[in-house]
Write a structure and sequence with these properties.
The chain has five helices and five strands; from the N terminus they run E-H-E-H-E-H-E-H-E-H. By secondary structure, the protein is α/β, with parallel strands linked by helices. Belongs to the short-chain dehydrogenases/reductases (SDR) family.
Length: about 200
Amino acid sequence: MSLPKLTPTYHKDTYPSISSTNPSLTQAGKTILITGGGGGLGFEIARSFAKASASRIIVVGRRAGFLDEALVNLRKEFQGNTTEFIAHQADIASDASITSLWEFLHSQNILVHVLVLNAAHFYPYAPDTLSMNKKDLMEAFDINLGGNFLMSVNFDKQTLRPTGLKLHLVNISTAGVHMHPSPNQNPYAHFEGCIYGVIGKDCR
């Protein structure tokens, strides 16, 4: 069975108009914060922003060792680059951890220009939707919607933000928000739809 397609062409690599090395897309002078930035897609996003000459890239995640390894690899790959790499342990499942993260950034006089919401909670899984445990379901809801909402609020309300300065929020999502190939798909897609419904219109 073939899955429905949102667009006629799916790209698996960049092309000139969206390349990180395109001068019109330079991130020079910008500070980027990426949640879930220690590995996988988050790590590759960090690499792309480094190629775009971002001044500072902050990778955030739950596991300190994982972040430290990412930091070593980024600094090694971009050792000739002027980009500053910072790793900070934080968990979007914890309101206190999120608050502490933004307090730390403020104490270091760091203004974040681009926030990439990449961290997510993909559970629960169940053979069918009605077999899910409510406690697990609500935990995932609180993380994917509540945690990312609180990150967005702190990003928007940064004390160091000059009046009128435009910030950029990037929410890493899934095509499953727009189509439902399976009646019992993981609820992650629905949570992503909630995020757009809550903050999407304010981020245009």
